[in-house]
Every structure is written in C-alpha cells, then in structure tokens.
Write a structure and sequence with these properties.
The complex is a heterodimer of chains A (about 120) and B (about 110). In chain A, about 0% of the residues lie in helices and about 50% in strands. Chain A has about 120 residues and is an all-beta fold. Chain B has no helices and eleven strands. The chains are: A mainly beta (about 120), B mainly beta (about 110). At the A-B interface, strand 4, strand 5 and strand 10 of A face strand 4, strand 5, strand 9 and strand 10 of B.
Chain lengths: ~120, ~110
C-alpha cells in the first residue's frame, strides 16, 4: 500500500518564477492538506482540499493556490516566488469522516529553494 | 488563539527515558498528536490521544494529558540512538467538518551513548 507520495523531491527556482508541486494521497484517502515548513520551524497549514474544492485556508497570500483532481491527487501552485517561500512543502492525506480524528499522514515533502 | 509550544532541545543518555513536553491552547474537545521527523524526511505519526483521555500507552511510548493545564507529554522508554529526531506536538483544530493541524516548533532529541 503506497503512502503519500510527493514530487519533485527538490526544486530550485528564482525570484518571480512560478512553481507547481504534486501530491498523491494514500490509497483510500479523499482529503489532501498542504503545509509549509520553514527551516527550524513547525509546519504551517496552507489549505485543505476535499471533493475538488478548497475547504479551509491558513494565513497565506493568494499567490498560493491549489487544485484537487477527481482521483484525489493534488497540486500546490505558488506564483511570483519570494526568497521567503524557500521551505519544505508537506502534503498530508486523510479520510474525511466528519470527525476530528481524521488522522493526517504525511509525504516526504518537496524542498523548494528560491534564489 | 492557536498556539502550541514545546521546549526546543532535549539530550538524553542511551537507555534512559525521554520526556518531551507540549502545551496547547484550544479548550474544546480535540485530538492531540505526536509526529517524528528525521533529517531530510517528512513527518511520521507516532501516536495520538483524544482530549477526554488522561493517558495512552503504545509499546515504548506513553502519552500523558493534563486537561486542566492543557499540557501534553510524550515519554519514550529505553531511548535508543535511532530515536534521535525532531518531535512535533500537534493539535487538531476542527471547524465546519474539516480539521487542520497546528504544530509546535518541534523538540530536537539528541541521544548519546
């Protein structure tokens, strides 16, 4: 049973460019969440997708957008990259049961470096 | 507000017990999680506890919850060098049928011989 997979593993971009990160959820999961982890910090919630719609959003600017596909996979897009966007981007998948205990399982992350 | 706080560093001798502490802020019923992150890796779920429980044990791991003080701890018995990692406490914030995780800054555990 494949867990959460993310691609690419590493990415280097320059300021002002755009980037797309990809995530395939754990088999059987229908909800995908994205987190940003800056160096030396804990992950910060970006947004969450269920049934191809954004359901919750953290305190991130509109430069951060996403998409969920019918097969539950997801993309995170970041436009007009800033140096401060350099971080590890983590994808988590879960099963929406309408309960608080929908445990989130994380992928290995994509490390984005903005130069 | 949303805030989870952890001590940043812990050093223990191999074979001793490790205790990692965390405080959270949400007063409503919630789930609390412990995740482990090894260098260059994602987050591995270790264990979780519901806020109406006092304790949960899973092999070498014991989670203690003090609801009054909103204090959570993770005890690792017989700590091994392979336990060296960053440990994150996370609180589940549940709203409108969806939940998000609020993480602390992480506790770096160093295990020495």
């Amino acid at each position: 049973d494949a867990g959460v997979t993310q691609s690419p593993t590493h990415l280097i971009k320059t300021r002002g460019q755009q980037v797309t990160l990809r995530c395939s959820p754990k088999s059987g999961h229908d909800t995908v969440s994205w987190y940003q982890q800056a160096l030396g910090q804990g992950p910060q919630f970006i947004f969450q997708y269920y049934e191809e719609e954004e359901r919750q959003r953290g305190n991130f600017p509109d430069r951060f957008s996403g998409h969920q596909f019918p097969n539950y996979s997801s993309e995170l897009n970041v436009n007009a990259l800033l140096l401060g966007d350099s971080a590890l981007y983590l994808c988590a998948s879960s099963l929406k049961l309408g309960l608080a205990k929908n445990i989130q399982y994380f992928g290995a992350g994509t490390r984005l470096s903005v130069l | 507000g949303e805030d989870v706080e952890q001590s940043l560093f812990l050093s223990v001798r191999e074979g001793d017990s490790s205790v990692i502490n965390c405080t959270y802020t949400d007063s409503s019923s919630t789930y609390l999680y412990w995740y482990k992150q090894e260098p260059g890796a994602g987050l591995q779920l270790l264990t979780y506890i519901f806020s109406n429980m006092d304790m949960k044990q899973d092999q070498r791991l014991t989670v203690l919850l003090n609801k009054k003080d909103k204090h959570l701890s993770l005890r690792i018995a017989d700590t091994q060098t392979g336990d060296s990692a960053i440990y994150f406490c996370a609180e589940s914030m549940f709203s409108g049928g969806y939940n998000k995780l609020i993480f602390g800054a992480g506790t770096r555990l160093a295990v020495h011989p």
